[in-house]
Design brief:
Elements lengths: L3 H51 L6 E15 L2 E13 L2 H9 L1 H13 L3 H4 L2 H23 L6 E9 L1
Antiparallel strand pairs: 1-2, 2-3
GO cellular component, one term: plasma membrane
Keywords: Cell inner membrane, Cell membrane, Cell projection, Chemotaxis, Cilium, Flagellar rotation, Flagellum, Membrane, Transmembrane, Transmembrane helix
Function: Controls the rotational direction of flagella during chemotaxis.
């Protein structure tokens, strides 16, 4: 038969084992709660991304600036010519109308920009990309002045001839 001391020792051993398990149980519960919270947050982001992807995008609208620009510029001892075809792209019909309404202002800004270039500066791709960026900024400024926002997304050179 077991004595009272043996029973007491066994009860205290079981109690110690249970008290040692308590931090483990609390840790598991906390991890489960954190996992559930993370799942819910990720689910919301996924739903938002899916809704954004499902939302129809406005179509690209292209506005060619016709006729092509023809400017001359000085290069060392000779006069050079540059002919550039330009098309702007937007997703906003109001920006299309602003580009059309401001055609003389845009053309003036681009003629000034194009005629200030050098042959050496435009001889490589980096120079053309820099000019394209400057031209886009010029068009955006005019459109922004007209409608309050620079809703021109891109500017493309559709032809580029130097002589």
């Amino acid at each position: 038969m077991a004595s009272a001391e043996d029973i007491q020792d066994e009860v205290s051993t079981v109690a110690k084992k249970r008290s040692n398990r308590m931090p483990l149980i609390i840790g598991v519960v906390v991890l489960l709660l954190l996992g559930a919270g993370g799942y819910m947050v990720m689910g919301q982001h996924t739903q938002k991304a899916t809704a954004d992807a499902a939302a129809p995008k406005a179509p690209e609208l292209f506005v060619p600036l016709d006729p092509a620009f023809v400017v001359n510029f000085q290069d060392q001892d000779s006069t050079r010519y540059l002919q550039v075809g330009v098309t702007v792209m937007t997703h906003d019909p109001a920006a299309v109308q602003a580009v059309k309404d401001s055609d003389p202002v845009i053309r003036n800004a681009l003629v000034m920009l194009f005629s200030s270039q050098t042959y050496a500066g435009l001889s490589d791709t980096a120079g053309k990309v820099k000019l394209q960026t400057q031209a886009l900024q010029a068009v955006r400024k005019v459109v922004s002045d007209k409608i309050g926002k620079p809703d021109v997304d891109a500017l493309y050179f559709t032809s580029f001839v130097m002589q």
